[in-house]
Write a structure and sequence with these properties.
Belongs to the class-V pyridoxal-phosphate-dependent aminotransferase family. Csd subfamily. Its cofactor is pyridoxal 5'-phosphate. This is Cysteine desulfurase. By secondary structure, this protein is α/β, with parallel strands linked by helices. It is 39% helix and 17% strand. The strands form five sheets. It has a seven-stranded mixed sheet with strand order 4-10-9-8-7-5-6, sandwiched between helices. A four-stranded antiparallel sheet has the order 13-14-17-16, with helices on one face. β11 and β12 form a beta hairpin. The longest helix has 21 residues. The structure holds 4'-deoxy-4'-aminopyridoxal-5'-phosphate (PMP). The site of 4'-deoxy-4'-aminopyridoxal-5'-phosphate has 13 residues, from α4.
Length: 405
């Protein structure tokens, strides 16, 4: 039985929108995904019925909020197969999660140490490590990609030495859609004793993630890219590391005891969660994961593969269009350029026809420079994307071509 795209779509109210009389064709899912009604309802219910701070109230609303908030942590822990719930740290998103790891590691990095990233990194996974290296005297090494956007695994392996302290790479590239062989890459990095951080911002919403099976030390992702609210995300990390590292921010919640002279820290996960958290966001993310994990995950992977194959075939046949990024394993992203049109023009002219894509450098300027492109036009798909919407994209691109001529 094929994946029930229409059944899924019916749960996303925004997909009924029209843009200037055209049905909305939302192909900007790598930037953020839309939210199903159950997530929207969960947010409304929280603010309407039990809005309260968590962990510290002596009343019913606080109990209810705390129960739902901590249940969301269990939900995430189960979804990614964490060893323990205290390994799930709430953050504001992938960016903050990576920054927490960098903050923890920065104190341990020394001149002579090395951090390895890849050429396909989002800025969040470059600048953070670049700055940690600059302040510690460690060296940042960048594993190269082929022109296809696939990582050069031999070169990657050659960069790994006994000086490598941390290896950071994306599960899926947001600009090119390249899916990295994260299990094999983790094993290679572990064989030299390095820590491994996976930027899962684009990997989390395309099927199951099992952090224990991957074998990494950290996996970071954002709620808003997997049908949850913005402003909430997850850092999953090994308890043995997170429990030892310096605290990230100080304030309420993360303490055990405070005097004017000193303070001691709470246990995990709270020691890394200072201040009032994004309670509605966390509960909303719990609802999103609960909803997502009940879907036919195998079916949705097949659906997304079929969408990718269909889009790629149409793109190859489209005269004057060049696909940017043709790795053998790709997920959900078609980046492209068109003769005679800057990506920004393509985006503008598609928007006039109700088609939402993203254009520009996709927070990956060094990658754009490496590929010698000014940026790309990027159509990105999700579980609710119809095959007919990809056809609509190419029909609209025909018009764009005509307008650009
Ligand atoms: N890494 C990748 C691969 C991403 O696609 C993104 C979001 N575009 C991020 C990191 C940063 O995520 P956020 O802005 O939600 O923190």
């Amino acid at each position: 039985m094929s994946f029930d795209v229409e059944g899924v779509r019916a749960q996303f109210p925004i997909l009924k929108r029209e843009i200037d009389g055209n049905p909305l064709v939302y192909l900007d899912n790598a930037a953020t995904t839309q939210k199903p009604q159950c997530v929207i309802d969960t947010l409304v219910e929280y603010y309407s019925n039990y809005n309260s701070n968590v962990h510290r109230g002596a009343h019913r609303l606080a109990d209810e909020a705390t129960t739902r908030y901590e249940a969301a942590r269990d939900c995430v822990a189960g979804f990614i197969n964490a060893r323990a719930r205290q390994e799930v740290i709430w953050t504001s998103g992938t960016t903050e999660a990576i920054n927490i790891v960098a903050h923890g590691l920065a104190k341990q990095l020394q001149p002579g140490d090395e951090v390895v990233v890849t050429e396909m990194e989002h800025h969040a996974n470059i600048v953070t490590w670049q700055q940690a290296c600059l302040s510690s005297g460690a060296a940042l090494k960048v594993a190269p990609i082929f022109d296809s956007g696939e990582l050069d695994q031999t070169a990657f392996e050659q960069l790994l030495t006994n000086k490598t302290r941390l290896v950071a790479f994306p599960h899926v590239s947001n600009s090119l859609g390249t899916v990295n062989p994260i299990v094999a890459m983790t094993a290679k990095a572990k064989s030299v004793g390095a820590l491994v951080l996976i930027d899962g911002a684009q990997g989390i919403a395309h099927g199951g993630v099992d952090v224990q099976a991957i074998g990494c030390d950290f996996y970071a992702f954002s709620g808003h890219k997997m049908f949850g609210p913005t402003g909430v995300g997850v850092l999953w990390g090994r308890e043995s590391l997170l429990a030892e590292w310096p605290v990230w921010q100080t304030g309420g919640e993360m303490i055990s005891e405070v005097t004017y002279q000193s303070a001691s820290w709470n246990t995990l996960p709270y020691r890394l969660e200072a201040g009032t958290p994004n309670i509605a966001g966390v509960i909303g993310l719990g609802a999103a994961i609960d909803w997502f994990s009940k879907l036919d995950l195998l079916g949705l992977q097949q659906h997304e593969r079929a969408l990718m194959a269909h889009a790629t075939a149409l793109a190859i046949d489209f005269e004057g269009l060049r696909i940017v990024g043709q790795a053998p394993e790709k997920s959900g992203v078609l980046s492209f350029l068109m003769d005679g049109g800057h990506p920004a023009d393509i985006g503008f002219l598609l928007d006039r026809q109700g088609i939402a894509i993203r254009t520009g450098h996709h927070c990956a300027e060094p990658l754009m420079r490496r590929l010698a492109v000014p940026g790309t036009a990027r159509a990105s798909f999700s579980i609710y994307t119809r095959t007919s919407e990809i056809d609509a994209l190419f029909t609209a691109l025909d018009k764009v071509k005509f307008m650009l001529a």
